[in-house]
Amino acid sequence: MTTERPRIRVLLADDEELIRTALAALLDLEEDLAVVAQAADGDDAVAAALAHRPDVAVIDLAMPRRDGFAVAAELSRALPGCAVVILTGQAHPAHLARALGAGARGYLPKGAPGGALADVIRRVQAGGRYVDPALAADALTIPPCPLTPRELETLRLSEDGSSVASIARRAHLSSGTVRNYLALAVQKLGVDNRAEAVRVAREHGWL
Q1: Residue 57 pLDDT more than 70?
Q2: Any residues with CB less than 8 A from the CB of 9 and at least 6 apart, and which?
Q3: Stated pTM of the model
Q4: Sequence-ordered list of residues with C-beta below 8 angstroms from that of 34, at least 6 positions apart, any chain
Q5: Where are the domains of the chain?
Q6: Of 10, 106, 110, 151, which residue is 20 to 30 A from 61 by alpha carbon distance?
Q7: How far apart are the two ends of the chain, measured CA to CA in Å?
Q8: By C-alpha distance, which of 122, 132, 22, 12 is closest to 68?
Q9: Which segments of 95-142 are extended strands (E)?
Q10: What residues pair up with 109 in beta bridges, in sequence order?
Q11: Of 27-31, 71-75, 138-142, which gets the smallest average pLDDT?
Q12: What top-level class would CATH report for the domain 8-139?
């Protein structure tokens, strides 16, 4: 008598409902996969993962409230048994290093072939890793980010045009320290102001 192998439990998180439900339907066709939870933003993705404890979490990179990097980092800390796969429409090579650094075990673009995601889920659940080959090759040619983590964080908080005082409160820094970090970012990127610094950092995938 043969015993049926347990299905790999999958969480899907994507703020685009059409994409999320289509992926769920596609994965549910696989005999060894089961979508046990879905989420439309980063905070809900973390909550759903903690509630359902999936084997694999497939996380969109750009989501409201908490992006894929933050979700991957939180799940790596709070639920190390859950392997994270980043599925993104923003396939920038610089994002690859950030995703892997945050704890993701898989990274592939949304334009990948239909069966690729199921194969990646199986691979990471078994302890392996997967990175889209084209992105991995491109990542070798991008320039390293000249900004420190603090400078990047301060620049990221300035993206919405927030005042120095507002950034200082959110980053738990003094206003003078925030001004220094922003000035250093502008200087290192060779631009005239922080808006231009944000643009350059965005273009290179550092933010």
Answers
A1: yes
A2: 34, 36, 52, 53, 54, 55, 56
A3: 0.71
A4: 7, 8, 9, 10, 28
A5: 8-139, 149-203
A6: 151
A7: 54
A8: 12
A9: 106-109, 130-131
A10: 88
A11: 138-142
A12: alpha beta
